[in-house]
Write a structure and sequence with these properties.
Oligomer: single chain
Strand content: over 45%
Helix content: under 10%
CATH architecture: Beta Barrel
Radius of gyration: 25 Å
CATH superfamily: TonB-dependent receptor, beta-barrel domain
Distance between the termini: 58 Å
Length: 676
């Protein structure tokens, strides 16, 4: 039990009730303030003004993204309430909503223009450093904070991150940018956009290079090429084509890992994507949308282990995977106050990784789903959102995913919401079929393995979550502020954890003393209760403040699972404009104690201590020979050294006990951008 969330909730509830009573009961049509609220697309697949959405949504728009100066998308998400994010190394991003994630978190659906970027093979999750996307081409990021499987299926278990890129006919011309700083930071970026009134083309390219954290083998060198083209066939039809490519080399491992099970090495990866969308507008209230995308990912990650009399034992986590997905969506007005969206989706995943699936690659995974959402304005003040999704996910039984939300606009500036939703989480292929065996290269054919680190579990049950939430969205025109509050109870059944088990088969007589592990379901529930809020205000001219705060009461029997969610997190961002083109952005980030993932060797518990860090940017815009330009000084992780996410098996080695093996480094760089 945490007394602070309850006390805070009482205070906020009292203040909000007083504000609602004081500001009257005007309808939305009478308010000029809600006209300024943005329209979101990701909560229900219906375009909805923010106060009409079924749930809490945070929007990071283009101006805000540019003002931060961040080089990575995942860094931006630290400023969203409830997001718990850490880096095990400079390029290793651990991104969750309310924690709980494994080594490769998969509780949030991540989309780029509607295309899922989850890795279909092996470990699942998102390779945040391998996205075929540049930060510069993002129009906005919509983060649905809470279960949204009703709209986007199993991976939207605890939320959705929808990255929406700019239309190719916006910002025509060319632009370049260079970043140079400590830790070997040397980035080059260029973008060009052109075309005519009906056809737009934008090409973006970026090379990212740095040496990562001090004392950690985590250098990064990546190249991204991205294309978006939009073609207006006629007044009713438009085609959108996106193609992306990301090639990277990244440093991994530690020099003293147990038997070199995570040895120092360089991993190569490549990601290809092709996405085609057809949009047919029948009228203002009706639209058809059809899309197809194909992703292909590959990685080369091989090294040799040594120890206990064995030399040059080959290990591999190399993978090849592919995903093909087709979707049809229809949105229309059923009545003047009722809108409906429905759709169908089909997907096929396949994976090839002999090192991860010793008994043979898993079968092709097929997924089918049908979804529908209804938005019904019962009265000028009351709105009902109902949704249902039916999903057939591989060999699992067909799942029914419901959601119901009611929004009450108590006044022209105050909206309350309440809702219930259920979601199922897709099991990634490695959790079910993962089968890692290590053999002595000098052994005779047919000899047993010298280690069996991972064993499959074909009987793994699918986790599901039941979420009940209350919310409030208020406008305070006197200080030009918006307050978004979410109170939640998330109860997860059949939560998946990794446990040590006896080897499922014989081992060599002189086998390595490495335990065998398997993914299995908890018999008891995992429950998270808490409150999170975000206050966005412009209290003075040229200034903007963004405050996010989350408090979570973690209710579960297993202490190891409890430590994978931080009980508190917060961020405060101040953006300021000055005369003569000067601007500044400062973000103060606070994270409570947090343990992420498992590490290579099970059975070691490591929790990173709470930390506070500062990100800062100072920039000046000017004109150079008539072209727009900007120079900026950027810094992240400023302040005292801290550890965010530890590799558990490495941190537990006697040489590292009490001393962080991978403290985050302060990174500072200069950037220059100019129209070309």
């Amino acid at each position: 039990m945490l007394p602070k969330p309850r006390a805070l909730l009482v205070l906020i509830a009292g203040a909000l009730s007083a504000a609602a009573a004081a500001q009257g009961r005007a309808t939305a049509g009478e308010s000029p303030f809600f006209e300024e609220l943005p329209t979101v697309l990701s909560a229900s697949r219906l375009p909805q003004v923010l106060h009409e959405a079924p749930g809490a949504v945070t929007i990071l728009d283009r101006d805000f993204i540019r003002a931060t100066g961040y080089r990575d998308v995942a860094r931006l998400l630290r400023l969203v309430p409830g997001m718990q994010i850490g880096q095990e190394r400079g390029h290793g991003q651990w991104v969750t909503y309310h924690g709980l994630g494994s080594d490769f978190p998969s509780e949030i659906q991540v989309l780029i223009d509607g295309r899922s970027v989850y890795a279909p093979s092996s470990f699942g999750g998102v390779d945040w450093s391998g996205l075929s996307l540049t930060v510069d081409e993002i129009e906005r990021i919509e983060v649905v904070r809470g279960t949204n499987s009703n709209a986007f299926g199993a991976n939207a278990f605890l939320g959705v991150i929808n990255i929406i890129t700019r239309h190719s006919q916006q910002d025509r011309g060319s632009r370049g940018q260079v970043n140079v700083g400590n830790h070997g930071i040397a980035d080059l970026q260029a973008a060009w956009s052109g075309g005519d009134d009906d056809l737009g083309v934008r090409i973006s390219a970026v090379q990212t290079r740095d040496n990562g954290f001090s004392g950690v083998h985590d250098s990064r060198h990546s190249q991204v090429l991205s294309l978006r083209s939009d073609y207006r066939v006629d007044a009713q039809n438009e085609l959108m084509l996106r193609a992306g490519y990301n090639k990277a080399e990244r440093g991994l491992g530690y020099p003293d890992s147990i038997f070199d099970n995570n040895a120092v090495r360089t991993m190569g990866s490549a990601d290809y994507s092709l996405h085609l969308t057809w949009r047919h507008s029948v009228g203002e209230d009706e639209e058809w949308l059809a899309s197809f995308y194909h992703n292909r990912e590959s990685s080369t990650d091989r090294w040799q282990a040594n120890g206990m009399g064995f030399q040059n034992v080959p290990l591999s986590r190399s993978t090849n995977s592919a995903r093909s997905n087709a979707e049809l969506q229809h949105r229309f007005a059923l009545a003047p106050q009722t809108r409906v969206v429905w759709g169908l989706e089909a997907r096929q995943d396949e994976a090839d990784s002999p090192g991860l699936f010793a008994a043979g690659n898993p079968p092709k995974h097929e997924l089918y789903r049908a979804f529908s959402n209804l938005d019904w304005r019962l009265t000028p003040s009351w709105q009902l959102n109902l949704g249902a999704l039916v999903e057939k996910n591989g060999a699992a039984a067909t799942q029914f995913i419901p959601r119901a939300f009611v929004n009450w606009q108590a006044s022209s500036t105050d909206t309350f919401r309440a809702g219930y939703s259920r979601a199922w989480q897709q099991r990634n292929l490695f959790e079910v079929y993962g089968n890692v065996r290590v053999y002595d290269p000098k052994g005779a054919p047919g000899e047993p393995p010298i280690a069996w680190p991972y064993a499959p579990n074909p009987n793994l049950r699918i986790p599901h979550v039941d979420t009940v939430e209350l919310g409030y969205l208020g406008r305070f025109p006197s200080i030009d502020a918006t307050l978004d509050v979410r109170v939640f109870n998330e109860r997860i059944s059949d939560f998946v954890v990794r446990r040590r088990i006896p080897p499922p088969g014989p081992l060599a007589k002189d086998a390595l003393p490495l335990p065998t592990s398997q993914f299995t379901n908890l018999d008891s529930a995992v429950e998270l209760r808490g409150i999170e809020y975000q206050l966005k205000a412009r209290p003075w001219r040229g200034g903007e403040l963004l405050l996010s705060h989350t408090l979570i009461d973690r209710r579960m029997k297993e202490e190891e699972v409890r430590q994978r969610t931080s009980p508190h997190s917060a961020s405060l961002t101040w953006l300021q404009q000055y005369p003569a083109g000067w601007t500044s952005t400062a973000s103060l980030l606070r994270m409570g104690p947090l343990a992420g993932g498992y590490g290579y060797v099970p059975g070691c518990d490591t929790t990173s201590k709470p930390y506070t860090t500062l990100d800062l940017r100072i920039a000046r815009a000017f004109r150079f020979e008539g072209r727009k330009a900007e120079v900026a000084l950027n810094g992240i992780n400023l302040g005292s050294p801290h550890q965010e996410i530890a590799d558990r098996s490495e941190q537990c080695l006697p040489a590292h006990v009490g001393k962080p093996v991978n403290p985050a480094s302060s990174m500072v760089w200069m950037s220059l951008s100019i129209e070309l």
